[in-house]
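Before going further, it is useful to explain how the protein records used in this thesis are read. An example of such a record is reproduced below.

***
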Amino acid sequence: MIEQPLKLGKQELEFLNGVADGLAETDALTSGGGSGGKIAFAELYAYATDPNFSPAPDLLKALDDDAQLSADFQRLLANTSMLYMPQVAAASSGERQYREADGCRITFKESRADPNQMFVIFELVDKQATPPSIMFICHTDNSCRRVVLSEAIEGRIQLLVDKDSHIVRGLSEVSTEVYLR
């Protein structure tokens, strides 16, 4: 019996290429790069997607110390996040009073009760969609800070933070990228 070669359409080929890329990325993440292979993909995925996940200190250390693992993690964030806010345009400089992307706008408002505190307010365009529960603020060196968000009320999430917190600094910097999941 002579087998006929399998003929795949454009969509099937794109799907298979995506699967192959995903497997290659999974292999890269689970190999551990310079972290000695100690970080499991499931642990990275849980850190990226589960607001109730408490990361082990070795995961945080590996993400800080291993540039390749950190870059791979940022690619994972790009693939799993519902909203992405890229770096602000090059013409901008200094600190911003808001950030926005399709589907969300983040604004900063000083607290009237305490001048050392600030509200970070997330306004979601689609108030019926599942709101994000985690935010990652990623810097140009691939380091990322994770922030668990409070529950959304009518498409709005508010955080009360110190003015000099890493959240305000990170969101105000034009060079950071923000992932909401």
